[in-house]
Amino acid sequence: MASDIEIAQKATMKRITEVAAKLGIADEHLEPYGHYKAKVSLDYVDSLKGKPDGKLILVTAISPTPAGEGKTTTTVGLGDALNRIGKKTVICLREPSLGPVFGVKGGAAGGGYAQIVPMEDINLHFTGDFSAIALANNLLSAMIDNHINHGNTLDIDPRRITWKRVVDMNDRALRDIVIGIGGTANGFVRQDGFDIVVASEVMAIFCLATSVKDLKKRLGDIVIGYTRDQKPVHARDLNAHGAMTVLLKDALKPNLVQTLENNPAFVHGGPFANIAHGCNSVIATQSALKLGEYVVTEAGFGADLGAEKFLDIKCRKTGLMPSACVVVATVRALKYHGGKDVKALNTEDLDALGKGLVNLERHVHNVTTNYGLPCVVSINRFTFDTEAEIAMVTDRMKALGANVVLAEHWAKGGAGAENLAHEVVRLAEGKSKPTFVYEDSDSLWDKMKKVATKIYGAADISAPAKVKAQIQAWQDAGYGSYPICVAKTQSSFSTDATVRGAPSGHMVSIREVRLAAGAQFIVMICGDIMTMPGLPKVPSAEKIDIDDDGKVVGLF
């Protein structure tokens, strides 16, 4: 079979005006970026508010493994399949970050015959949204140091500046740096550091804002640090939020593209789920719900991260709630969770599969019991999956009340996911009583403890005295009603990336906490997770190239 990029490059795309017409969006509401991608005007988005909502379908997955699971591929394949069975469906995805594209993960436009296109554009610069987010973030950084250099009338304590610069690249050398060296003309010397763009609070605000007005207010609420007498300093105190909003005003318009089967897809915003809240923009999701009968969206990494944050942050803040949930897995990945070596996953091993199924069981339990959502398990089928292995997965899931559907959209496109689509419709048309893992009224500490014990299977949480005191200080300062956003490894329910399966009774240690007052959540950084990743020994960038005809190769 051809590679993902070869399939994408051979696609017969329709002009974006034709794709938009499927949703009833007239040409005058589009701002095209070439022939095959466009932004939708915010005036048009605002005009949709009186329309009823379609049904929201959340696609999540087991804890990711080197074997791969195919969550984005399933999201695209399911969206195409729902359209094939007569349901007017819109897909909502996040924009890929260049860090993983040139690092180890690769692109995020799906795979095989379940992709969004133009694939190269989406995985690279796209419509420039990430550049705008980085510029807005770094404008605030520049204004902070400029203010201090020109007299510091706000009495900002350089030792207590919490705002970091960002770049959309995996660059470990920038995690901790010193700025201002080289003499007085370069400002005051202080410690600083970079995060990756997707970890920026500006990204989180961008994805949670519901309008330009809301965006500007949230940007103004950002706490950049503290004065010498420990009072918070906001972006609005520096008069930075207006200019930041100007940089983001066009980026805030949702991006419309298409699948290989020419069905509409919004791709907008891109926070990571292991260090941020892992959901596409609220504006894109709300717009899609007004335009389609069904909206299929994904939340990053496993359900312990992406789905938890989708529900406890995005849904809590917006009133959105999925009508059904799809948990994606592969037999290969489940055998990996059962301890099998990644090089030996293509051979039948019922013992390893049986052990690894505990990971899927916990994710399904969390979705159905802790959140009260109807759930189907979608198995991305490989030719070397045996009947005995499929039967074991089906039987174990049946005990939890979840049906298993084999999906072949990677090889067959939407036609390979029609059975999944029918099961999703059946679940979505039923009744459910969704809930959250914690209440707004719970303390910040108790919110973290409930997520750790209920979702991760931990025995308890811990934190150094300094971190615990900071959490309590924010509680006392009025931030206690905020949800929490946990930054931890995506590879395990624990904070140890090497622990597979479904560990229980472990301790979740909070290493650091960050206030995201504009995004309106508290970030709990656990274990060894970094908000600025590094490149692997052999990064994907080494394989990406362009031939003499200008065709991109090696991108996946």
Distance between the termini: 14 Å
Task: Provide the structure class.
Answer: alpha/beta
Major sheet: 12 strands, mixed
CATH architect. name of the largest domain: 3-Layer(aba) Sandwich
Contiguous helical run count:
19
Mean residue pLDDT: 96
Task: Using the coordinates shown, work out and report the CATH topology of the largest domain.
Answer: Rossmann fold
The general outline is globular
- Taking all Cα atoms into account, the compactness measure Rg is 23 Å
Task: Provide an overview of this structure.
The chain is built from 19 helices and 25 strands. The mean pLDDT is 96. The chain is globular, with a radius of gyration of 23 Å. Helix content is 36%, strand content 19%. The protein has 3 domains: 4-128 and 251-428, Rossmann fold (3-Layer(aba) Sandwich), CATH 3.40.50.300; 129-247, Domain 2, N(10)-formyltetrahydrofolate synthetase; 444-526, Formyltetrahydrofolate synthetase, domain 3, CATH 3.10.410.10. Helix 4 packs across helix 17 (418-428). Strands 1, 2, 3, 4, 5, 6, 14, 15, 16, 17, 18 and 19 form a 12-stranded mixed sheet that branches. It has a 4-stranded mixed sheet with strand order 20-22-23-21. A hairpin with a 4-residue loop joins strand 14 and strand 15. With 556 residues, it is α/β, with parallel strands linked by helices.
